[in-house]
Design a protein that fits this description.
The chain is an alpha/beta fold and 347 residues long. It is built from 15 helices and five strands. It has a five-stranded parallel sheet, sandwiched between helices. Helix 9 links the parallel strand 3 and strand 4. Helix 12 crosses helix 13, helix 13 packs parallel to helix 15 and helix 14 crosses helix 15. The N terminus is likely disordered.
Length: 347
């Protein structure tokens, strides 16, 4: 009994090597078949490496679906050389792209700098007391990375990031529930469910870190204060200077929170708009930059808006420029990278 095998649909991610090769014929030489085996093995390796299905490989290679199925299985009746060339060209382009991607330098891992130590101490204060702290640093000064590191290395710490889309009380609570894996679909019970999750349960204390908090409205910030008062957990409100600006004067709203009450709940505030010089120098040294002129140029970049982030992005691009020319990173590469990024007006 003959079983019909469709050659027009390719599904799944199973990559089994064909059992037989095409037979030598007028339109298939031994060289064609030898290359076919090599290409089939490379396609199998790529498919498994990236988790691509045969349909995905077909789409990416640009070959028609039915044609790829027959080529891969060794049942294609026509010439092999043309389709071998198509697959070979695609695989070469894929490998070239992988080589380029591998050359892109990665960001430096978390570094314990003077500024990050201050953030760490503020977070520890909030967790142990427990208390409400406000951390307002300039952009690119590693506040998020420090908070992430703290949450990863200490127990009973929860970290959530809010946005303009989650600035209301309900939006913030929904985001917190998702980050804290709180399963509660009744909006009226959501705050209590989150409070139960972050409630202080040991001498270690607990801490809720809310990053990008400048997006929150007044009522949402007041809700965070409520977690400290009722559930005895520490809360760290982390963001830029805008988040504290609303507390500079004792403003009162008829339908909003009392700013005097909120201000009195803030146990510690950490504010800086620029990084420490010693931190900039240490961060630049981590990129193995020793030329004094290059260091001076990078310090100038780091003092602009974006701080460490500006240095990181510039050094990545400079390193790629240098590697592409087989050279060591120099001031010229760094200056060219900064110019190429074209962000002077934004910094």
């Amino acid at each position: 009994m003959n079983t019909h095998v469709s050659t027009t649909r390719i599904a799944g991610t199973s990559w089994e090597r064909p059992l037989r090769a095409p037979e030598v014929s007028d339109n298939k030489s031994e060289e064609d078949i030898k290359l076919w085996w090599e290409l089939v093995d490379r396609v199998i390796e790529v498919g498994k490496k990236y988790g691509w299905s045969k349909a995905e490989v077909t789409r990416r290679s640009g070959m028609k679906e039915g044609t790829f199925s027959q080529w891969f299985s060794g049942t294609y009746a026509g010439r092999l050389d043309g389709h071998n060339a198509t697959i070979q060209q695609w695989l070469s382009a894929l490998e070239e792209s992988s080589v380029i991607a591998a050359r892109i330098p990665v960001s430096k891992p978390f570094m314990s700098l003077k500024g990050s130590t201050e953030v760490h101490e503020a977070l520890l204060w909030a967790q142990r007391c427990p208390d409400l702290v406000m951390i307002t640093l300039g952009p690119g000064m590693s506040k998020t990375m420090t908070c992430q590191y703290y949450a990863q290395t200490r127990p009973y710490v929860f970290l959530a990031t809010v946005s303009e889309n989650t600035k209301t009380v309900h939006g913030m609570l929904t985001e917190l529930a998702a980050e804290l894996d709180v399963q509660e679909h009744n909006p009226a019970k959501l705050a209590r469910a989150i409070g139960s999750k972050v409630r202080r349960k040991s001498d270690e204390g607990s801490l809720l870190i809310v990053d990008e908090a400048q997006h929150l409205n007044d009522e949402a910030i007041n809700q965070l204060r409520h977690f400290v008062d009722v559930h005895k957990c520490g809360v760290a409100i982390v963001g830029n200077a805008e988040v504290y600006g609303r507390f500079r004067k004792d403003r009162e709203k008829s339908n909003g929170p009392s700013y005097a009450q909120l201000k009195s709940r803030i146990g510690k505030r950490l504010q800086r708009t620029q990084p420490y010089m010693e931190d900039l120098q240490a961060f630049i040294a981590a990129w193995d930059v020793t030329d004094q002129a290059a260091i001076k140029f990078l310090i100038g970049i780091g003092m602009k808006g974006g701080a460490f982030r500006q240095i990181d992005k510039t050094m990545k691009l400079a390193t790629m420029h240098a590697m592409g020319r087989g050279e060591e990173v120099s001031l010229a590469h760094i200056q060219a990278a900064w110019k190429n990024r074209d962000v002077e007006d934004f910094a």
